[in-house]
Specification:
about 375 residues, Rossmann fold, 2 domains, 8-stranded mixed β-sheet, 4-stranded antiparallel β-sheet, 12 strands, binds adenosine-5'-triphosphate, binds iron/sulfur cluster, binds magnesium ion
Length: about 375
């Protein structure tokens, strides 16, 4: 076939995919537009009432003209009340899409939660976020669950002063605070996140602040409502090392002050070791290992986790070259039907060409998805 014939064929294929995508996403979008959804439809039960959040078999896909991007492909994890759970994995493994799914902020119509449950232990009774109507989600977002993003500049409005932006957040989320008291509350929030000249910063524009200060402002804003769950997506990646340490210290301190739970998303294992009670390792849209920080760091079982830990630089240890896991993450549009890590794995055994391994319990709190442990059981 000549080049033009190939191009023509590819365009035809894309048109077919686009047509089929339109039909699929219409079904989801129609469901979202439903008004007056009865509470009974989204009420649920927590499997463990001590958890604030339980994600069960979550699938979030993007229906693009190039094919279906399976960004989150069967994620199951839980966040116990008052604990910090770190979600780690290489770039593109689906960490941010998981967090956006929790907030129901996945951008439609192409992005859709196609399957699974996100059980949230609301003070008024547990709900399944996947089935919860957007009107209810607006009450939850920012009030009960808040999010801190990687790049504060994208979340702060450059043309408004810091003070007025936090004032506005307080007015939206805390109707119990009188208008005359709002500024006082804003200054209190700025002081809470360790900003010394709070009155001065109140009058500043975002561009007048350093990156670390802006991230503190973002954290102050996300804490206005005393959230029960904070999702921090790479909160320190854009900051230099000393500021990183200060922001982490701040998050840790705040967690005890306001007794919140934290879902900390990062690819920095150093941050995880310092902050997390539990660690969840994600690879190509799936969870490959999870457990307490001690389980995962001191006793990693999945070859991918072992590779991640090996590739982390260690202070006072001289190496010629830092280890990096060979190969690449599989294309999320064309995922294999065997273990997604197989092409990069140095521990591969015969059955690895078979079914995709399921997450199985290997210790009290330790789970892993790898055929090496099927063998042990046999
Ligand atoms: N709007 C979108 N349309 C199509 N694909 C998307 C979209 N958003 C994310 N994806 C794809 O979903 C996959 C997961 O992306 P995600 O942003 O969750 O990765 P991540 O783990 O947060 O990576 P990073 O560490 O780089 O932030 C990637 O393959 C990405 O290309
Ligand atoms: S299932 Fe096999 S290929 Fe996959 S991580 Fe385990 S040993 Fe490696
Ligand atoms: Mg991300």
């Amino acid at each position: 076939m000549g080049d033009r014939a190939v191009q023509k064929e590819a365009k035809k294929r894309m048109r077919e995919i686009a047509k089929s995508n339109r039909a699929i996403v219409k079904k989801f979008e129609d469901e979202k537009k439903r008004k007056h959804v009865p509470k009974l439809e989204y009420q649920t039960e927590m499997h463990n009432p001590n958890n604030i959040l339980e994600i069960d078999n979550l699938h979030t896909y993007f229906y693009t003209d190039m094919g279906t991007v399976k960004s989150v492909n069967g994620v199951t994890l839980e966040i116990p009340q008052g604990k910090t759970v770190a979600l780690v994995g290489e770039s593109g493994c689906g960490k941010s899409v998981t967090s956006l799914s929790i907030m129901k902020l996945v951008r439609g119509p192409s992005g859709q939660i196609t399957n699974g449950q996100i059980r949230y232990n609301r003070p008024t009774g547990p709900i399944d976020i996947v089935k919860t109507p957007i009107s209810q989600m607006q009450d939850i977002r920012g009030n009960e669950i808040s999010m801190i993003f990687q790049e504060p500049m994208t979340s702060l409005n450059p043309v408004f002063r810091i003070g007025s932006q936090i004032d506005e957040a307080i007015m939206i989320h805390r109707p119990d605070i009188k208008k005359s008291e709002v500024k006082k509350q804003t200054i209190k929030m700025l002081e809470l996140v360790g900003i010394a000249r709070a009155e001065g910063i109140y009058k500043s524009f975002p561009h007048e602040l350093s990156g670390g200060m802006r991230q503190r402002v973002m954290i102050a804003m996300s804490l206005c409502c005393n959230p029960r769950l904070i999702i921090a997506d790479e909160p320190t990646t854009a900051l230099d090392v000393t500021i990183q340490a200060q922001v982490l210290e701040l998050l840790r301190d705040l967690k005890t002050k306001i007794d919140a739970s934290i879902l900390l998303i990062t690819h920095d294992l150093g941050v995880v070791a310092e902050m997390a009670d539990f660690v969840v390792v994600m690879y190509a849209g799936k969870i490959v290992e999870q457990g307490t920080a001690i389980d995962v760091f001191l006793n990693p079982q999945h070859p991918y986790t072992m590779g991640l830990i090996k590739s982390k630089p260690v202070v006072n240890q001289e190496v010629d070259r830092l280890y990096s896991i060979p190969g690449q993450v599989p294309n999320p549009v064309h995922l294999p039907n065997h273990c997604f890590f197989k092409d990069r794995c140095d521990k591969c055994i015969e059955c690895c060409s078979g079914d995709i391994p399921e997450l199985r319990q290997i210790g009290q709190s330790h789970k892993v998805a790898c055929h090496l442990y099927d063998e042990e059981e046999a």
